[in-house]
What does this fold into?
Amino acid sequence: MTPETAQKGFVFLNVLAIPAVGYAVYDYFRVMREMASENSLIEFDSGTYYLTLMSVFWLLLVIQKGGLNLAIKPVSPTLFFRLSSFVHKKMGAFLVVWFVGCLVISNIVPIYVNYKFERSNYLKCKNLNEISRTARGNSWIYTKGECAKLNLLTTIEGRLWLSE
It folds into this structure.
């Protein structure tokens, strides 16, 4: 693989991370909005929040571009050069902190959302339409009714509806 091809693939992963992280944020607000409007049926997938890990690619791109700029600049005693040199010495630690922070967020948010569901008197039911998965997390449906009476049907739109 040529360096140009590898760079294009890396930029592609960075661009792909934008909607992935955006979806994780959107899903959180969607669930909170549906909970606030007291919908009788709310779909929730705790594995969605692991998409935030893709934001690490953004930091890697910043480190790469900053490192290239630092390598091109001549050695000079300017404040900018000294500051950027200090930042690049600490980027490895910052990258590890960013990654661990994303892991913490992706594990804490589902716990918090489950807590909010319990406080709002929702019952956790297994999503019967869940496709076998290898990803981490579980697909749940929260309902105000009983799980035993829950009969799920998939509509043309792919949404789940309660049928009596």
Helices lie at 3-36, 56-72, 79-119. The chain has three helices and five strands. Residues 124 and 142 are 5 Å apart (CA to CA). Residues 79-119 form the longest helix (41 residues).
